[in-house]
Structures are given as C-alpha cells and as structure tokens.
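Hi support team,

I'm filing this because I wasn't sure whether my run with aspartyl phosphate finished correctly. The job status page said complete, but I'd like someone to confirm that the output block is well-formed before I use it downstream. Pasting the exact inputs I used:
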Amino acid sequence: MAASLQLCRAKTPTHSGFFNTRSPSPSPSVSSTRIQFVASTDLLSAIGGGACRRRRALRVGYQRGIRAVLEEKRTEEEEDEKESFGENVKQFTCVMKFGGSSVASAERMKEIADLIQSFEEERPVIVLSAMGKTTNKLLLAGEKAVSCGVSNAAEIEELRFIKDLHIRTLDELEVDRSIISPYLEEFEQLLKGISVMKELTPRTRDYLVSFGECMSTRIFAAYLNKIGIKARQCDAFEIGFITTDDFTNADILEATYPAVAKRLYSDWVNDPAIPIVTGFLGKGWKSGAITTLGRGGSDLTATTIGKALGLQEIQVWKDVDGVLTCDPTIYPGAEPVPYLTFDEAAELAYFGAQVLHPQSMRPAREGDIPVRVKNSYNPKAPGTLITKTRDMSKAVLTSIVLKRNVTMLDIVSTRMLGQFGFLAKVFSIFEDLGISVDVVATSEVSLSLTLDPSKLWSRELIQQELDHVVEELEKIAVVNLLQRRSIISLIGNVQRSSLILEKVFHVLRTIGVNVQMISQGASKVNISLIVNDGEAEKCVKALHQSFFESGDLSELVADGSFGNGSASLLQIETQ
Ligand SMILES: Nc1ncnc2c1ncn2[C@@H]1O[C@H](COP(=O)(O)OP(=O)(O)O)[C@@H](O)[C@H]1O
Ligand SMILES: N[C@@H](CC(=O)OP(=O)(O)O)C(=O)O
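And here is everything the job wrote out:
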C-alpha cells in the first residue's frame, strides 16, 4: 500500500476588480503547480525490517529525512498560504458602513451607489443598516403583536409601513420584488406567531429585527448588480460573526475575526464581488440563533470587519458632518470635531453620544485602524478622523455629551471609619445583580455612583430591580436613591482639568445650576458632572457656548447676554 502525501503550492488565475483592473494576488486554494511526495510504506518497512545498525541508521535517517522534508514543505506551504491569504485580504482596502438614514429610500440608495463608485481606488466591504427607522418599526410591530390578537396581526400599522417602504424602494430601483418577498411573508407570519404566543422573548426580538438588515442588503446588492457593479449580499450570521448568546446585546467573540476574514477572502477568490454585509447581526455560539449587537450595532460590525481584514480605513457614513461638539438635536450650533483618539471616541460613545456604538472603537483600537466618520448627505465635508493618538497640545475640550434619565445612589457606610472591604462589598452587590455602574465618586465611608439606565444598553432598569439593589445595599449602608439625573460628560484633554473645571463652574454658577457629583475618569479624557435632568440641556448649551463659540462666557455676561440667575436661563432657553 502506498501512503501518498500531497503538498500544494499556490498559483491562481488573476481576477479583475469591480472598478479597475487591479488583480488580487495568487490564492492558495486554486493550484496549478502541485508538488507530490509519494512515500511507499513497502519501502519503509523493507528498510526498517533489517537488524543491522547500518540499516537501522539508514532507516532512521531516511524517516527523519522524509519527516524533515515534509515538515519543511508543510511550513513552506503554511507560509505561502499565510502570505497570499494576507495579500488577498488586502485586496479590500476599506470598509464603508452606511447607517439607516443613508439607505432610507431608493433615492438614497442610488446616491450611495454613486458614492461607492466615486471611490475608484477603493475595494470596499460595505456594511448596511436597516432602511431608515425600520428597526424601530419592527420592534413596535412585535410589541403590538403581543397584545393585538391573531386576527389583527396582519393589520398592524408598522407591518404595512415596512412592506410599503421596501416594495416601493424595489420598484423605484427597478429591482425584482421576489428578492425580498419571502422576508415580508415571513415577517407577517412571525407577527402572527407572536400574537398567538402573546410574548416577545429577547431571542424572538432579535430574529424579528434581523429582517431589517436582511432586506436592505438584499435590495442594495441587487441594485448594484443591476447597474453593473458586481456585488454579493452576505448575512453576518452566515459569514462568521460569532457572538455570545446575550440576545439584544450580544458581544462579538474572538473567533469571529479569522472566520470572517477567511470567508470574505474565499468568496472573493471564488467570485470577486463587493460584499454587502448586514450590520448589527451575529450568530449566538451556543444557540446558533440570530443575535443583535445592541442598538446602533452596525458600527461595531464595520470595525470588526476592519480589524478582521486589517484594512487601511474604516468609514462610518452618517447623516451629520462627523462627530460633533455636542448632540445637534440638543444644540444646533454643534460643530464637527476634526480629530479624535480612540479613547475619546469610546468615552463619548459610552457616555451616550448616539453617533457611535459604545463598543465599536474596541476592534479599531486593537487593530490600530483609523476610523473616519463622514456625512453621506455631504461627502465633501472632511468628517472626523479617529486614530490612536493625536496632537493634544492645543486641545482643551473636544465634545460635550449628555446622558439623561440616570439613577444616582448615595451610599454611606454604617460601619466605623477605617473599616476595609466596604467598596468591595458594594461592588459585589452590583456584580451579583448584573447592573453596570457608570460614574463613581468615593470617600472612605461614602460612595456616590450612577447606574446605566439601559442596563448594558438593552433594557430599562426596572423599578423592581432598583428596589432590590437598595434592599441589598441597606444591609451595609444608608442609601439614598436619586432618580431623573443626567450625566454631562466633558470629553477632552484632562491634562487641562483645572482650566476646564474653572470654566465649567463659572458657567454653571452663572446659570444657577448646582453640580451634584463630579468625577474625573481614569481614562484621562473625561470629566463627568451630575445634574438634575430638568437642568441638563441648558447646561450643555451654556457650556457649548463657553467652550466652543467665539464669545467667552465672561464676555457674554459682561454684555448682558447671560445676565445672572433666571435672566441668563431665559436667554439660553430662547436661543
Ligand atoms: N456628538 C455627536 N456628534 C454627532 N452626532 C450626534 C452626536 N450626539 C448625538 N448625535 C446624533 O447621532 C446621529 C447619527 O447617529 P445614527 O443615527 O446612529 O447614525 P446612522 O443611523 O446613520 O448610523 C446624528 O443624526 C445626531 O443626531
Ligand atoms: N438598524 C439597527 C443597527 C444600526 O446600526 O442602525 P444605525 O446604523 O441606523 O444606527 C438599529 O437601528 O439599531
């Protein structure tokens, strides 16, 4: 019997790209040169059968020789494979993520297609969110289905809205309706199922919202193909996005990176086409069910692909001119921030700036891949470039972020001063209850902290849970629960904290607002202030004017624009 060992060396035909004729590098998977080693077992046993030392030495030497050759060849093959794998992956230059507002209609999809084509030198991977507000509508439809009764499920207003939007878009793009009709039918069936069961579990919720991204990507890929740009729709949960099974707020697992890289690469080698990937979705590693990455999770999909493929840039296309100095819905005078570090962007996102998903900076930071936030409505605007480091020599404040409806706890130890383990006990209670803490300020016997209102970004921290927290804490401390508070986070150069704080307190004193807690994070990019919900917006406006607008607050006060006390509030409110 002959043992045949085959080693393949990479050589592939070349492929042409979508926009230009740049060809990807050779691939290991298609072989035209094959080196073949055939080691006969008969020969080996013949050599090994003799008793004399010389023959044994010959046998050992021969076997070692073969092993060495094979090992060397195997390593060579692996190296070749790695090399050409890397080169091929590098055929994708960037990932471009388009959010809901960028793909809200047929017209927007056409504009995005033009935009993608305008980057002639790029070979992008595209990540899309659901069209417009589809995710919200899907969730609302699911919630209505729970209580509307089976006979009314087909009449749910949001079902009609979603069907109309998607069919209208297909018609306007002149793409065949059959591309998504199975999804629309299944969506209706699912609503009927929910109405029968009278419950919407987190797992079903994720399955329900996945229809949004599954449909938008199919429509867009079909449109690109129709206009002659070769594209391939990819469901993230089929191409290697492996997550925890925390439905509605799943975490991406490490195994995702090689799996996604391998799949995108091999698809490309087999048939080069722009991948159009569903944002926001993954596959639970235990359940095998569709999971979602938390609201706004398509940003995370994009940065994950960026890291997996080691791309040159991750582009996140929004409906604003980049990351702004504050939320434009709170203060329309917000200005784009040209540069940010990953740390600043992560802090900004974590403390509530809707513009980026809180976890999305992690893969970009790990892979050291620049993230550019751009406006799909205004592509010429430079946007925001997020990198590992930036010149901080002139930086003071970068952005102001507001997080509303926060719960604050004042916890004072009932034990004597000098008791150790108090903080450990407090935090172990939060750990046991699975509640995340945002801002903390502490002395030896007392502690003030805020609780994330959306408990890990997914669901409301309900009153029952809060009562339970207080009950547990009251075993070791006197607890004061303060609700309807806001965190104002000042993201910037905390090396200049004295300057920032001097200005902040001047502003807040001028408008008559008391700060209830203050914390400077270990991240060194964030100072957080806690104020009452009702006062938060006017604080943000006043702080923005003071830090970012030409007239310094003192000048405004001097010329009577702010006046003092209530007169100043009136001025700010009416702006
Ligand atoms: N600091 C900020 N900078 C920019 N946008 C912000 C900021 N804070 C909140 N936003 C809001 O985030 C929105 C963009 O994020 P998002 O709606 O998730 O975009 P998309 O759906 O296109 O990914 C903006 O329209 C803006 O209202
Ligand atoms: N469609 C999902 C995921 C997402 O990222 O959306 P957007 O990019 O529009 O924020 C959501 O609404 O949460």
